[in-house]
Amino acid sequence: MTCHQRFYVLNLLSTFLLLLMISTQTLIRVSAQTNEVATLVEPSYAEIIDQWQAEFKLGPLDFQESFFLADQTPASTADVWEKQDAFGYEHAVVHLADGKQTTLQIEVPATGLYQLSFDYYRLNEGLIEPEFALKVNGEYPYYESRRVIAKSLWTNATDDFPVNNYGNEMIPAQVALNQWNTRLMYDPNFEQANPLLIPLNAGENTLEIIHQSGEFLMGQISLQTPVELLDYSEYLAQFTSTNATNATNQAETLLTVEAEKPAFKSDSYIRPIAQKNIAVHPYDPASNLLNTFGGDSWQRGGQRVTWEIEVPEAGLYQITLKSIQRNKQKAPVFRNIYLNGAIPFAQMQHYRINPSDQWENQTLTDSQGVPYEFYLEAGTNQLSLEVDVSPMTPVIGSLTQMMQEINQLGLELSQLTGNRVDANRDWQIMDYMPDLIERFDGWIVQLEADYTLLDDVYNQAAASPDQVTLQVIINRLRTLKEDPNDLPNKLGELSQGTGSITQAMGNLIVELQKGPLLLDQIFVHQAQADLPAATASWTDTLTSKAQEFYYSFAQPSLDISDVEEGTIEVWVGRSQPYVEIMQAMVDREFTQQTGIDVKLSVMPNESKIILANSANQQPDVALGVSVGQPFELAIRNAALNLSQFEDFDEVSQRFSPGAFLPLMLDDQAYGLPETQDFYVLFYREDIMEQLGLPIPNTWQDVINILPELQRAGMNFYIPLSSTAGMKPFMFTAPFIYQFGGEIYAEDGMSTAIGSEASLAGIKFMTDLYTLYSIPLQVPNFYNSFRYGELPIGISNFQTYVQLTSAAPEIRNSWKLALYPGIPQEDGAVNRETTGSAQTAMIFNKSEHQDESWAFLKWWTSADVQIAFASEIQTAYGPEFMWHTANLEAFSQLPWPEEDKAIILEQWEQLREVPKIPGSYMIEREISNVWSDVVFYGSNLRATVDRSSVYADREVRKKMTEFGYLENEQVVKPYRIPTVETVESWGD
Questions:
Q1: Percent of the chain having pLDDT more than 70?
Q2: What is the DSSP string of 469-490?
Q3: pTM for the whole thing?
Q4: Closest Cα partner for 489 from 424, 412, 435?
Q5: H-type helices in 464-568, by residue range?
Q6: Each residue of 318-355: b (16+ CB within 10 Å) or e?
Q7: Rounded Cα–Cα distance for residues 410 and 420 (Å)
Q8: CB 247: neighbour CB atoms within 10 A?
Q9: Under CATH, what is the fold of the domain 684-835+913-984?
Q10: Does position 528 have pLDDT exceeding 60, yes or no?
């Protein structure tokens, strides 16, 4: 019996068991599972804090006590660093890395709720923040305790902004401050208004500190009871008339701080922004100056920026922000304001900054418009502004919970209807779900309360876009409620598809979590001081615009333009921020090393390459082009054969062999892999552990866990479910390859999808839907994974970026594993998958082929790729991850080591689909086979045979066009690229 036959015997057995289980479950039991997901992990802090505050009191008033972690080494797996190695700390410290942990025994005088703070020193490089998990008496007290962040502090490497070749200022390199810091424990989303509280029993308690990411030292843990902030009147009363005399004597003091140059900040990518506006300081009509700060890069909860202010004399001063806030229309944003590291009085917590369409001088005032006064010592004072999204936390929590409930209803309806929509079938839904109307009523009432809360928080004359979205959701729920029997036909409106209610809720949550603000200057002054005007006069504005227009004709840019003789012209298919950093690296490194000038330009559209080549206006090099472009140009004699260079074989060893396959024609390479995608298994470790399910290694393992997942109202995801129409090779080819099949015949003149092995792969690909009921369409796996509806599935780099940068609440609750595969006779598992992304190429008509090859070698080298990955992420944020195709460079990126290990191991079986003339038709026909079998129940063999005829006809037509066939006879052989051919280059 072959491995394919054994696999299908096991499949049939699993199918029988699955059908038996489903047949024994009633709809009542399915309904009883609606809240099961919520019980799989600890409750959130927001869910449990009200209960705790009712049960416990705060700890004893003014209680504070500190404990050195290094003093309790017997219970620790972490290393202890002695005082002399602790970077100036007063005591021995604990070194946390590689998942190690330390345990601390503490005593408190009374049962109650306490705040926790900790001293830490960051050791690791890059953007990875030091993080740990906290257990109290053997348990996580709430979900947020699984991820406690020890925030880093960042500053500019230089006080002056560097200038590029065009005279425009650039963001300087960012460096993390190496210093000891003390921080209270906050939730990872920074959605709670105050530091988190932990419950402790009177007497002895055990705290476990478990390393999660980064590398850092920890000194002492401090416990304290919360300190209530003073009211402004109490704050002001602390300062005598003598203290305030200096402010009176300096009545016209006006101190100006340029916002674009803070002392330090909590994230490297909170950045200055160039604004061409004469009202902004500084201003130059001829060049772009980095003259404002923040905007969209300063909008996430907890992001804090600190400026230093030199005050001539101690006294009471007012503070004015020259700001603009038009990113969130008709909605205010909030900031927590700190002086010298502490919020001075209660009114500086959740301070409201109103929306504005133009620059305004917003003095910090009370609700009546009376300016607040702040006492500042003579000398250096620190002013910090921290993004605060806590006023929206109740609405965010409500929407998150409701999304889970609506998604659960969608799953129940899918199970009831067999996941098939039939507009001609009548349902009596209330017979199966008698509480349906009650559920809808509850959602509508809660959303109306959320609308009222937003109305109170925003307090604007007109409804904000957030409120409009909320009202649209309410209206849609009311419409669906009117005809519950039609719900099975309207799942796309409820919980599935790109226009569903749940997607609208998810988008609204994202918007509510934003608080952008753009600053130009900060003024510290007395009441009598004359502040500069926030806006320019219309005559000055008109004059400046005329000057900008004049200089625009002479100002060079990154747009495509003529280059000087001897300069390599490179078109880059990426956005301007990427190209700016690339050009800076080229100028300071490649050109200085080689003397070769290079001009990079942003390529707005890849089709421009073909048009430019036809008009003999092509560049020398193109970067960031799609993986199929080199082949299409090579077969038309427009791309340069890179294999001709003497050191090509050596350079080719930088990359996965399977990544070259779509870049080859007649065993020659016409491009280099530049970036590389990956498809791996994502899984929610917390949910899988609670369900007691193993992480699948093979596809049979996947089938084995499906019944239990589906019993809990969950499922498994594969990328085929992400597209409603065309199913591309990147999603279908892995099934064919893993079952030992091929897409093309050996001579390349026809398709091979009708072979037994290929049929086995296609059959399994369709059986996943027809027999095993995985979801037909998943509009957004990231959202479904984040909220636990699909706790396991196969996805790629895009999902990885989203989860690492935009799902902080599950940061340490998900992991990666290898792509499931098919066991082979020798015991190995075939996990062959696709994974190409973007490529680099040289044009055949280039007059600088040797220089262009030198540039490509430099650009794709490990050192350059590592440096670029670091610069782009440090400057623009964690979501700007660079998935280089250089294997050595990728292994050194500042990603979690266990994640890189999985990805690199999966890349060992990377096998991209080669290109042949007419391959697009084979890709389309495989997609058509899937649709016909899954949607219409067509016979697989007959459908594949019919599609093979259509595909072969198109392949022969294209082979004739490019000179491989003549009168249906082969006149020139076509060689299908193989991994073995690529591997032989290194021999």
A1: 92
A2: HHHHHHHHHHHHHH-GGGGGGG
A3: 0.81
A4: 424
A5: 465-482, 491-494, 501-512, 538-552
A6: bbbbbbbbebbebbbbbbbbbbeeebbbebbbbbebeb
A7: 12
A8: 22
A9: D-Maltodextrin-Binding Protein; domain 2 (3.40.190)
A10: yes
Q: How far apart are the first and last CA of the chain?
A: 37
Q: Is 571 helix (H, G, I), strand (E, B) or coil?
A: strand
For the record, the structure tokens of 926 come out as 């495989």
Q: What is the pLDDT of residues 55-98, one digit of tens each?
A: 877 767 778 899 999 987 666 788 999 999 999 999 999 999 98
CB 777 within 8 A of CB 934: no
Q: CA torsion, points 271, 272, 276, 277, in degrees to nearest 10? A: 120
pLDDT of residue 779: 80
Report pLDDT digits (tens) over 613-647. 888 889 999 999 999 999 999 999 999 999 999 99
Between 575 and 119, where is the model more confident?
119
Contacts of 418 (CB under 8 A, 6+ apart): none
| Exposed/middle/buried for residue 302 (C-beta within 10 Å: 0-12, 13-18, 19+) | buried
Domain extents in the chain: 45-224, 232-389+515-543, 393-512, 568-677+837-907, 684-835+913-984
From CA 2, how far away is CA 18, in angstroms rounded?
Answer: 24
Token reading at 891? 């292994």
Distance of CA 530 to the CA centre of its chain: 45
Give CATH superfamily name and number for 232-389+515-543.
Galactose-binding domain-like (2.60.120.260)
pLDDT band at 29, cuts 50/70/90?
A: very low
CATH number at 568-677+837-907: 3.40.190.10
Q: Is the pLDDT of residue 737 over 80?
A: yes
Q: Which of 233, 44, 217, 40 is nearest to 123 (CA)?
A: 217
Q: Which of 205-219, 343-357, 496-510 has the lowest mean pLDDT?
A: 496-510
Of the listed ranges 121-125, 442-446, 874-878, 903-907, the one predicted with least confidence: 874-878
Distance CA 219, CA 90 (A): 9
| HSE (side-chain half, CA atoms, 13 Å) at 218 | 37
Length of the chain: 987
**Any idea which residue has 């680099």 for tokens?**
840
> 568-677+837-907 and 684-835+913-984 share one CATH topology?
yes
Tokens of 645: 């260079």
What are the b/e assignments for 632-644, b being 16+ CB within 10 Å? bbbbeebbbbbee
User: Is residue 422 over pLDDT 80?
Assistant: no
Which range is most confident: 47-61, 322-336, 671-685?
671-685
Rounded distance between C-alpha atoms, residue 608 and residue 264, angstroms: 43
| Cis-peptide into 719, omega within 30 deg | no
**In this structure, which amino acid lies at residue 259?**
A
Q: Is 358 exposed, middle or buried (0-12, 13-18, 19+ CB in 10 A)?
A: exposed
Q: Under CATH, what is the fold of the domain 45-224? A: Jelly Rolls (2.60.120)
Residue type, 549: F
- Tokens matching residue 775: 């979801």
Residues 6+ apart with CB under 8 A from 456: none
Query: What's the mean per-residue pLDDT of the chain?
Result: 89
C-beta atoms surrounding 936 within 10 Å: 8
**57/44 Cα distance (integer angstroms):** 20
